[in-house]
Amino acid sequence: MSDPAFSHAIPCCPTVAAIRALVGQWRQEGQTIALVPTMGALHEGHLSLVRQAKQQAKRVVVSIFVNPTQFAPNEDFSSYPRQLQRDLDLLATVGIDAVFTPDAGVMYPAGFSTTISMVGPATVGLEDASRPVFFNGVATVVAKLLIQVAPDLAIFGEKDFQQLAVIKQLVLDLDLPVTVQGGPTMREADGLAMSSRNVYLSTAERALAPRLYRSMNGVKDGIAAGQSVPSLIRAAKTELEQVGFTIDYLVLRDASTLAEWHGRSQGRLLVAAWLGKTRLIDNIGIGYVDLDGHIKE
Ligand code: AMP
């Protein structure tokens, strides 16, 4: 059942049959199961989701699969960091019950013909605008993972805020019997959101990268001080562009629908920006913002 190519203390299941056998055994014993899906190259952000899962379920499964269908041909699928042995060592320090490690042949065997195509939160002009194939790939692979592992609870990071909304909608639409929960974004000491892609940053880019979080907080503070949202966002964009970022979007959206923000709702400030060849995304909660753009606690 376990993949002998990797040495570690955690059962490693490379096939659907193997993970189902293990989960089925736990189910028979009446145990609850949580799943934390990842693409590997694990960091403290992933581990925080695992800890959150451990608090709520008896058994925790982490999946590691770099999903080819969510990458466009011009994106970083082939260079995406892959370091399974290191990931397994890290997971052993937190203590989980199984790692599900399908390869592309297991996930998409010859003749695979089904894709889940979504609108709603998947088409609000954020990640979908720059990455047209992304959410169909995410929705399809997450639906498969949820059907393969059949957990009670699945945890996803708020770091990928639109993705979290897409997955909540997917589970609702397909009546998948699982609770989806978000986990807060873990950051480096200087505020940069942890990401497997941060390793792409040069030393100079790494030094600039925390400005993204600082700028978002500047906008948040400006809104709290009663300044106009559009001019705060314009100023933040200009400041970021001047130091070398190329911005895909920096917007205030309704936190629950991700639609345009029209006031009187919880706001979420979301950003995607390039530093050299690295695309960074981040977001923060703004609180309840009224029609004039003032935050009400
Ligand atoms: P990935 O391996 O990048 O696909 O991410 C796997 C899961 O970890 C997703 O649900 C992400 O949203 C989440 N995640 C990524 N970075 C962070 C972070 N810095 N803090 C918390 N969760 C994160």
Would you give an account of this structure?
- This protein has about 300 residues and is an alpha/beta fold.
- The chain has 2 domains: about 10-185, Rossmann fold, CATH 3.40.50; about 195-290, Pantoate--beta-alanine Ligase, Chain: A,domain 2 (2-Layer Sandwich).
- The protein has helices spanning about 15-30, 45-55, 85-95, 105, 125-130, 135-150, 160-175, 205-210, 210-225, 230-245, and strands spanning about 10-15, 35-40, 60-65, 100, 155, 180-185, 245-255, 265-275, 280-290, 295.
- The mean pLDDT is about 95.
- The structure holds adenosine monophosphate.
- Adenosine monophosphate binds near residues 39, 45, 46, 160 and 183.
- Adenosine monophosphate binds near residues 39, 160, 185, 186 and 196.
| Largest sheet geometry | 6 strands, parallel
Query: In the CATH hierarchy, what is the superfamily of the largest domain?
Result: HUPs
Residue stretches low in confidence (pLDDT < 50, at least 5 long) are none
* Ligands (ions, cofactors included): adenosine monophosphate
| Element pattern in H and E | EHEHEHEHHHEHEHHHEEEE
The whole-angstrom Rg is 20 Å
Relative helix content: 25-40%
The helix tally amounts to: 10
Number of strands: 10
Shape assignment: globular
Structural class determined from secondary elements: alpha/beta
The overall average pLDDT, rounded, is 94
What's the CATH architecture of the largest domain?
3-Layer(aba) Sandwich
